[in-house]
Write a structure and sequence with these properties.
5-stranded parallel β-sheet; binds iron/sulfur cluster; globular; FAD/NAD(P)-binding domain; Fumarate Reductase Iron-sulfur Protein, Chain B, domain 2; alpha/beta; binds flavin-adenine dinucleotide
Length: 494
Amino acid sequence: MATQKMLTFVSTPREMPAKRSAAERSEDFHEIYREFATQKAAEQASRCSQCGVPYCQSHCPLHNNIPDWLRLTAEGRLEEAYRVSQATNTFPEICGRICPQDRLCEGNCVIEQSGHGTVTIGAVEKYITDTAWDKGWVLPTTPAQERTESIGIIGAGPGGLAAADMLRKKGFQVTVYDRYDRAGGLMTYGIPGFKLEKDIVLRRNKLLEDSGVEFVLNCNVGEDVSFDAIRGKHDAVLIATGVYKTRDLEMDNADAGGVVRAIDYLTASNKVDFGDEVPDYEDGELNANGKRVVVIGGGDTAMDCVRTAIRQGAQSVKCLYRRDRANMPGSQREVQNAEEEGVEFVWLSAPGAFAGHVTGDMAVAQETDVAGLPQIASVRIQKMRLGAPDVSGRQSPELIEGADYDEPADLVIKALGFEPEELPRLWGVDGLEVTRWGTIKANFQTHQTSIPGVFAVGDIVRGASLVVWAIRDGREAADSIESFLTGETRIAAE
Ligand SMILES: Cc1cc2nc3c(=O)[nH]c(=O)nc-3n(C[C@H](O)[C@H](O)[C@H](O)COP(=O)(O)OP(=O)(O)OC[C@H]3O[C@@H](n4cnc5c(N)ncnc54)[C@H](O)[C@@H]3O)c2cc1C
Ligand code: SF4
């Protein structure tokens, strides 16, 4: 293959891999972007200006050596590009797919700042590692020396798995406990297949198993086994349990039938995607097919819900958000994808109340679900305007009196964010300190909690965050656990 020169951004425009048409992709749960062809990946990588101070690298939470793997890709040296890329990232092909690059590496690319359009860093990262899998370059870990010390990791999400990977590389014995039947955490059961196909996660789980990581699945710590029992069994413990408590709404008929939590809805959909039997999907409770769906929230979870509902064959899908498009927390790229697929965004709108089915004077209670609650029939929508900025600098939404209206709905999905469960109480652990938000208190560098030998990473420490940050925490915690167990200091000063 002809070697590409670098710095071609002046003559080569930015190009993403082709996106499947909205009509085609709305029919299935496969990813929406096609793979780069080899020549196209090299061409796009060659746009990098190899600038002296790579802001992309400093804004990547893993400090990936992006300019080097872009140059190697442009030169057709893909195996070397893969080696550089995987040296700092446990799941490069996953980050390439789902990192919000516009806020991280790509948003800080120097040629983006100069108006030429960022290098498509995420798409190239995905291409390099997908190629490595195809070519058989991704192999299980064989540690140079086995060690006897064992580490128990609670939670098989990206934080726990990144730590497991690094600890096995160091030769430690690693057991990962998870309450679900498959590893991967939210990569498996939260994020839908159209952003991250499930085979991509499963092959990583298998690689870890082949590397000697022991998985104990269907094991809910605190119920099936106590936290103390896990501590007693291992020389160090890592808590990586994520955040799953859903923020709720306080209003009339908040618990009506047909009002569901985003995490339940997305988990059910992902299980169906795996071919599992899901009674709550079969009986229609967590299935949008044929329904008028209203999703409440403006974050990435809400975006995943609206697009899932489209794929399930909803009659209509509306997304309510109390601020406007410019002030929503979700990615603009995902909003655009959702709009292309037929989602209607109702900006500056908040739910005021839920009502059951009423025709004329007919009582709400006539349409009840099995639990005797009214079945959702409509959402009272309150219109908002943006007022003065609050302490965070964001404009606060204010109610416009008298502008309410009722929006018919058969399924309402609450996607209002997540909070930590009360782990010390649930697990009966004395001395495990938490912050006032309920997240576990852990040292930012060592990730050690208030209990010596117990470490914590990912969302349970940061609050709802990103896969890439959980990976970074997990990799750092592995170094820290090694130091704790061996007395040697390996933690790089930041
Ligand atoms: C719908 C949705 C979409 C998202 N999309 C993106 C995205 O596009 N890009 C991105 O970067 N981030 C995204 N995120 C955020 C990202 O998924 C999380 O930040 C990340 O997964 C956190 O990793 P973690 O390892 O801390 O926890 P998790 O991934 O939540 O994993 C925690 C694991 O711990 C297990 N567990 C919990 N309690 C127990 C217990 N008591 N006993 C045993 N096991 C337990 C859980 O079953 C789970 O498997 C999304 C989140 C959601 C909800
Ligand atoms: S890990 Fe995420 S932020 Fe870092 S280079 Fe890859 S896509 Fe960008």
